[in-house]
Amino acid sequence: MKRLFPFAIVLVAVSVHSGYAQEKTSLSGGKTAPRTEYSVSLSENVVKLKPGETKQLTVSILKSKGYLRSAAKLGLSSSLPAGVTVAYEPAEGMFESSVASFTAAANAKGGEYQVVLKTTVNNKIKGSIVKVVVENSIPKDAVSVN
To answer: What is the pTM of this model?
Structure first.
C-alpha cells in the first residue's frame, strides 16, 4: 500500500516595481533609503552670489544597505565659472551630508552657470546640477555720471 503525503503550496507575495522587489529601509530624517546604490539630494538647486560673497548648500547622501559602509567622495564634473570656487566640508569619508561652500571672488564675472556636483560612492558616480548665478555688482539700469 502506497502512502501519499499531503503537501501545501505556499505563495509569497512580493511588491514588484520595474522588475525589482521593493525593499526599503527608513533611515534618519524619515527618508527612505534606495533599494540599490545611493541617492543624492541638495538643499538648494540655485545659488545666487554677489562678488565677494560666500553661500552654502547641503549635499545629502542616502545609501542603500549595501552601500552603508562605503565612503563618499565629492567633487565637480564640470568647470566652475571664472572667479567662483567651491569647497566641501567634509569632501571625503563616511558621512551622510556635507556642506558645499560657493565663493565668488571680487572680480567674478556676472552670469548664470550650470555646475555639476559629483558624488562618488563605491565607484558609482552621480551628478547633481546646481544653477550658479553671479550677480553683477553694478545694476544693469544704473546710470553713470561724468
So the answer is: 0.72
